[in-house]
Amino acid sequence: MKEKKSKIDVQGFEIAVVNQSNSDYISLTDIAKQKNAESTGLVIAHWLSTKFTIEFMGLWEQMHNKNFNVTEFRNIKNEAGSNGFILSSKQWIDKTNAIGLTSSAGRYGGTFAHKDIAFEFASWISAEFKLYLIKEFQRLKEEENSRLSLEWNLNRTLSKLNYRIHTDAIKEHIIPKNITKDQANFVYASEADVLNVALFGKTAKQWREENKSSEGNIRDYATIEQLLVLANIESMNAEFIRMEIPQKERLLKLNQIAILQLKSITANDLFTKLKE
């Protein structure tokens, strides 16, 4: 699974956070810079070599890692506290098959730990630093959850909208017919009716006569995609007017544009895939 990387600022120190398999890992290397920016690996090794840390790490692994090598853990635990005992993150991972830590070399590498372990390490560095780390980490998670919630609601709304467009597309009345010569020759008193005829094939008055029992007007009963195209041809008509194109020519152009745009919308397979 691809890692999702983020950065948080804790008392002036930039701390990397990555999400792996739905678990958050925080850079111990970045945290260690608060204590010694030149020897972060040594700082981590000193912390990892304490008996308390080893016991904590072993307990965490046994709770979360079914493949944890308990035998090697006990061997390491027995050695802890002896003269010259130093345990690096790589040794811990290799010997015990641990998953709470990850370690990689290189410019963009370093040691990362599951957030539970990272907070313990930060506490060893500084109680104050740990509190600020937790605060900034929580802020990051709240922002991510807010974005996810917004994206989910937006995607859900778009899915419903697009599904409506698709279902409406199968109705024969959506795609306007080519206007007749008589319609093209008719001089409409209102520019709004030019748009109505181009898109719906009839004037507002004609629609009212055909729908005497309906309230509102022709546009109140338009489908979503019709309203989208209406907005497009309305702006185009304004531009055509500025270009001093005669009304008859504008009507013909707008009618053809409306037909092409609605065909394009209703033929788009994307709308059928978003029903959920």
UniProtKB/TrEMBL annotation:
UniProt xrefs under SMART domains: KilA-N
Domain KilA-N span(s) in chain numbering: 4-140
Source organism superkingdom: Bacteria
One Pfam assignment: KilA-N
InterPro entries in UniProt: KilA/APSES_HTH, KilA_N
Protein name: KilA-N domain-containing protein
Organism: Flavobacterium orientale
